Amino acid sequence: MDSRITSRFAHTTITSHVVNKADRAQEATFQVEIPKTAFITNFSMIIDGVTYPGEMKEKASAQERYRLALAKGPRAHLPPRATGRNLEQFQVSVNVAPTANATFELVYEELLKRQLGKYELMLKVQPQQLVKHLQIDIHIFEPQGISSLDTEIAFMTKDLADALTTTQNKTKAHIVFKPSLAQQQKEPGKLDTILDGNFIVHYDVNRTAVAGDIQIENGYFVHHFAPRELPLLPKNVVFVIDKSGSMAGRKIKKTKEALLKVLDDLKPEDHFSLVAFSGRVTQWKPVLLQASEEHLESAKTFLSNTQALGATNINEAILLAVRMLDESDSRKQLPSGSVSMVILLTDGDPTEGETKLQKIQENVKATVAGRYHLYCLGFGFDVNYAFLEKLALDNGGVARRIYEDSDADLQLQDFYQEVANPLLTMVEFQYPDNAVELLTQDSFRVFFKGSELVVAGKLTPQAPDLLSAQVRGQSNTQNINFQTEVNVVNKEKVFEDSEYISHSFMERLWAYLTIQQLLEKAVSASGTAQQSLKGRALDLSLNFSFVTPLTCMVVNQPNDQGQRQLAMKSMETGKQYMEHFLTLGAKASWYIVFIIISVPGTSTPLSAGITTPPIPVPLEESLKSMERAPHFILSLFLRKKQKEILCVDVKGSPFRPLSLISDPVQGIEVKGHYKDFLDTFSWLQVSYKTPEVQVYVNQDSIIVIRGRGQHEKSTSYQWQKTFSLGFSGKIRTKGKNHKKEKTTKKKENSMLPSAFRLHSSFSGCGQHFPS
């Protein structure tokens, strides 16, 4: 691995050489994980002395060729896919002849982003075997000077300490990791490697010029701006918390833990409030209040009493938060020059109130009207991230995925720290009109402590020898104007040492940043404007050989293998892990739901068992053309012991609950939240009109809600407990050890659910699905 960082722009090359010492052909696999923010720029293979280079193509045209390649045999491989929070996997396999060798080379580039006061380069080291010649070289060149440098290595041991060397001077650093075979072994004499994890380099640079640092190379410039010692701006924040049923269990627990700590981090001059929403929206206070000790304790009590149950009314929750900011502002309760924001945390799509995603986005954008910042945190890998991303980008914020792991609370806190300390608002970069062109984004609504603003562009032929720049912004109620001037010739001389830089790195930095920003703008745009943005991003991607969401790299393998490899950029979507999970064969679980219903026009009730059978179900000849096995088998039993089998495919949205039963006359409704990519129901809810009772069931607990409004009472029960509840002698509920039975006596002829059971394994009809 060789990584060269120049002015935050990282150019990384991963090379792997394999030799087949066997007397038969064997398959060689090259598998690496790279940062999601990186763009692949080249991939090539040298097989038995013949080079097979990658060719950049537009994704739309190349995908059809790849689809045809998939049909030729099992060796046509899937494109890269996300494998974790910050990484995506690239994999290619080829046959290597006896005694022959193969060399793989992957090149990717990325602009390192400053977060919480540091830049971070992450390399995933995972050789999966002992490697005779394994070496990691990292070269850093920062003309501003390196102020801090450290490494964080997940697999580091005392025995590996002398395999790591770091040398550093004022502007350069060189990190080398070169372990011997013995140092790589988990145990002496064993073939298992200890090298498995992240190799991370953190660093920061010196900052002396308050107007930032301008660097110039080969006719392009980059302006880095991160002033120090500015006073913090007070902030006004409304935390909007999803407490719908799908948040039950770990999600709501981790959310509470994180927000309790976030509340402690609020400064006395900050103002805040809380909104919690399910199908209904509740607020801690109707306006924002100062973060005094008394108010914080009251808010913590409100937060601790929040329980996860019910539907999801995102639209009303966000609009209420905006109205609270408006009301507080109209009362002159918010500090002058402060920064106002809404932080939304949710795990799903809207299911109550306004449910059309585009309409919600329009409502929120019109109500916010560019005055506040909306940050959207999506909880879990199955969240509708595209919806949240557009919602945030439309309103001056960003979206972030929170992974449902044991450190979810720390992820929430880390994000809050990124936006907790605003320093400037309405920041604008200005340069002489005749000096620069092709500028990237040059105005920013807010600058936070620990981050950095970056502007890049091209110098015009008539640019003067001295390039001047101004950076304007607002701090509290003051207008601030920073100015700087640099000598173009002197700045270009800085990068004459080619040992530490890649060729024309600044032009590629400009292209990388421009593509990123065009794609971001395309998320908020529509129609011809969106197509224009994507078209410009596509042209740049092809010209600079970047694998982006609009392009892919095609590698033709040897003729005798008859296959074509395709490298594509993975996308942040709600289903990004579906293919990955299906290939892993993860531990399975399954659900069975038994319902008794009455059929209109008959007096004979039917018993419907919605199951996923543990063994494949033979299909009739007429059904064998199905693309995949059906989601569920419905067994219908008549009282005369007649039986019918019905296979059902669920085509609904994986984010919206399905209405399983609705009987307004008898006052009963059954809903379920179905996850298509896992083929499971994540929760089920049975609602009765008289008496007014809701029974909500998920994998963690059973929640019984009685009454509505001021008379609403809810009780939560764990599956491990046994309980028996009666409601006016009309409903009786029992549960024990992952089983729940329900009997109802409303009227003698009423046919309501009589049995409801959940089990802990799940098989698909004709195939196996993970849970």
TrEMBL record:
UniProtKB keywords: Glycoprotein, Protease inhibitor, Secreted, Serine protease inhibitor, Signal
Major localisation: secreted
Molecular function terms from GO: serine-type endopeptidase inhibitor activity
Places the protein is found: Secreted
Domain VWFA: 236-419
SUPFAM superfamilies the record matches: vWA-like
Stretches assigned to the VIT domain: 1-110
Presence of keyword Signal: yes
CDD domains: vWA_interalpha_trypsin_inhibitor (cd01461)
Pfam family, one: VWA
A Gene Ontology cellular-component term: extracellular region
Family: Belongs to the ITIH family.
Protein name: Inter-alpha-trypsin inhibitor heavy chain 4
Gene this chain is encoded by: LOC114024029
